[in-house]
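Lab notebook page, bench 4
Experiment: in silico fold of construct C2
Operator: M.H.
Input chain length: 440 residues
Purpose: comparison with the prior construct
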Amino acid sequence: MFFYGICGDVCCVDDAGCSSDGPGFCSSGSDGVSDGLGATDLDDGDSGGDKVLVESSVLSCAFRLGAGPAGIAIAACLNVLSIPYIVLEREDCIASLWKKKSYDRLKLHLAKKYCTLPHMPFPSHFPTFVSKYMFIQYLDNYVAQFNINPLYSRSIESASHDGGEKWKVEARNVGSGEMEVFEGRFLVVATGENCEGFVPKVLGLEGYGGELLHSSEYDNGKMYSGKDVLVVGCGNSGMEIAYDLCNCGARAAISVRSPVHILSKEMVQWGMSMLKYLPLNVVDKMLQTLANFQYGDLSHYGIQTPSKGPFHLKGTIGRSPVIDVGTVDKIKTGDIQVFPSIMSVNGDNIEFADGKTSRFHAIVFATGYKSNVRKWLKDDGALFNDDGMPVKKAPDHWKGENGLYCIGFARAGLFGISIDAQNIAKHINLILSQQKAVDQ
């Protein structure tokens, strides 16, 4: 049996990419476009200026959420195999999701051995469960180790296949405003499954009088001390944000919209180790027994447990169990209230599915993310469905037609990203090697 691993929310939000001055590249020029790539000015006849064409073997497109683990993983693997590539990145730094859009107390919810990227383990002195800031340090060191240099501030407008052997990506240089055209034989989509924050439609939400934000905009609860704050969503981010709010003096509440497994980090680590020796359904039953023993029947507090096991749900629909950081105790003592789904909003009043109404100064939507790949990728050869997710399930999800690949879409966290990166790089290298043999 092959198991991809579990990661919660941001830990699964591993999209983006980066680029390199690897073999076949010269150092970047002042505009960020690498010299020596066959760059050509193309007069497009528009008043906005010329288009710039850059050619490469592999294009790895990272859009909006920064050069994160998925992108730098594929970049490193290509670099090791001496395959030249370009990565286009909308933001101005690597790991922008981690550096700019994650809350302060975040940690990796899995042991570090399940979260390493290819060819570089975590330092031995790092703790088993790595903090946000130590993980950012690891990513920065990873980029330096493999000489990865993204082309920043490139907003992708479209990517299409020419029907022959080339992919063409049109991107706007955010700094200069110019359109740039990049061409390559292969295209690796590294935008990931969690590219845009998702806020569900709620009747009357547009008239809400308080503060409204997505979890990606939440840093910590200090500014909410003494205020009533509702967190919508009971995944890892939602539960941890509610806990953080409570510790910072806010009157926190959480809207639990669906059943959820709640486990400790030690339970998950033990379960993943046991999967090497026992069937998944056996491990799931053992974990559920341990959870019941430690937490009791949480239905009394408004939290229902799914009928299917935690690893089964992760492997089939990508739903991660919640790794408890202390939230359950706060719920049991009444320090964090639990409400059902929101039915409607009327000013500051929130009406819930049980008919009760309450007022809140702020609402934090910890309701996840969605893919945006369908907005800009053309000619995908049915690799992605209407939701921008791979049609095929893992582990066969990463390869499309005409040299198209995707990474960070397996709902398998950092472990899945590492596997994807190595598979993609090996496949590209095989094709190039076969072509070289034919040419000789």
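Observations: Residues 1-49 have pLDDT under 50 and may be disordered. The radius of gyration is 23 Å.
Next step: discuss at group meeting.
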